[in-house]
Amino acid sequence: MNRLFGSSKKTPKPTLNDAIASTDLRVDAIEVKIKKLDAELTRYRDQLRKVGSGPGKKAIEQRALRVLKQKRGYEAQRDHLQQQSFNMEQAQMTTENLRGVMATVDAMQTANKELKRQYKNINVDKIDQLQDEMEDLLAQANEVQETLGRSYDLPDDVDEEDLAAGDAWI
């Protein structure tokens, strides 16, 4: 009936994760086949040890060669699928890294806008004036401290000889 009226459902395109999972499942299925062929090869090897020379041995060798060719074909297919999976994983990591970069750039743009907005509220001339006022106030505070720290009873004309003689201490 879908041929007459068409199908209304469109299946979504597979994601990279879906493709990787599908490829990994195929690799696992091939691994199972390779293990079966390994068991068969082991059985043929045991049979070859027991059988003497003759037509029976040649038949077993031919079957073993056929199984070995199958195994190598499956191994090549497995290696190819594993490489595909690896390539898809690399593409996925690159995509995730690009998303991170884009998020970082967006954050930097937002911060840049905020900094520009904040700097509009800052008047450099006022800051310079405030610094000058603070410098003047600190200078005045130092003058007050010096004035308060003066000594009242020491004569100004004391020299080193008087100090050595001890006369200035009395």
**Unreliable runs, pLDDT <50, ≥5 residues?**
none
> Count of helices?
5
Classify the beta-strand content into a percent band.
under 5%
Number of domains: 1
Oligomer designation: single chain
Q: What structural class results from the helix and strand content?
A: mainly alpha
Number of strands: 0
The coarse silhouette is: elongated
Order of helices and strands, N to C? HHHHH
Query: Distance between termini?
Result: 127 Å
Largest sheet: none
Average of the residue pLDDT scores:
87
Helix proportion of residues, in percent?
over 70%
* Spatial extent as radius of gyration: 46 Å
Characterise the protein shown here.
Helix content is 80%, strand content 0%. The chain is mostly helical. It has one domain (15-142). The protein is elongated, with a radius of gyration of 46 Å.
Question: How would you briefly describe this protein structure?
Answer:
Helices cover 80% and strands 0% of the residues. With 170 residues, it is mostly helical.
SSE layout:
Blueprint lengths: L1 H4 L10 H35 L4 H66 L3 H25 L11 H6 L5
Helix pairs in contact: 2-3
Q: What attributes does this structure have?
A:
about 170 residues, mainly alpha
